[in-house]
Amino acid sequence: MSLGFGAEKGDVTVDYSLNPYGAFGMAHRLELKMKFETFSSAKNPEAEKAAEKIKADPEAVYGETLRWLDSRVDSEKLSPGQQALLLEKIIEKFSPFGVDVSGARARLEGLRNAGK
Question: Of 51, 71, 107, 113, which is most buried with the most CB atoms under 10 A?
């Protein structure tokens, strides 16, 4: 048999329980839970602003994104796997806007072929 209670306020929950723990006697258990919202454009003004920028001039943002990737490859010494993952995300993000992502696709293919 155990005894416990909990309290919740907003995004924070605290639970306490007292449980029998065999030869060790009673065990006190205190649990703290926090809920975190996921980032979405509806709740994140920066993401909403970035989405509007992409819609306004997707070609320019695509070019800017590839330049950002090049700078990260050098400054953070990204592995081929990390580069491939980012290129896949870039292709996925800009393809629906009709952007010519053939440069990113060729670069991704080169990374995949180098790994073989």
Answer: 107
Q: Would residue 40 count as lying in a domain? A: no
- Those residues whose C-beta lies under 8 Å from the C-beta of residue 80, and which sit 6 or more positions away, are 111, 114, 115
Are 82 and 115 a contacting pair, CB within 8 Å?
no
Is residue 21 located within the same domain as residue 61? no
- pLDDT of the chain along its 116 residues, tens only? 788 989 998 888 999 999 888 888 899 999 999 887 654 445 677 777 888 888 889 999 999 999 999 999 989 888 899 999 999 999 999 999 899 999 999 999 999 888 66
Q: Which residue has the tokens 């806007």?
A: 97
The whole domain housing 17 covers 3-34
Whether 27 and 73 share a structural domain: no
Phi-psi region of 68 (alpha: psi -120 to 50; beta: other; left: phi over 0): alpha
CA dihedral 101, 105, 108, 110 (to 10 degrees): -130
50, 95: one domain: yes
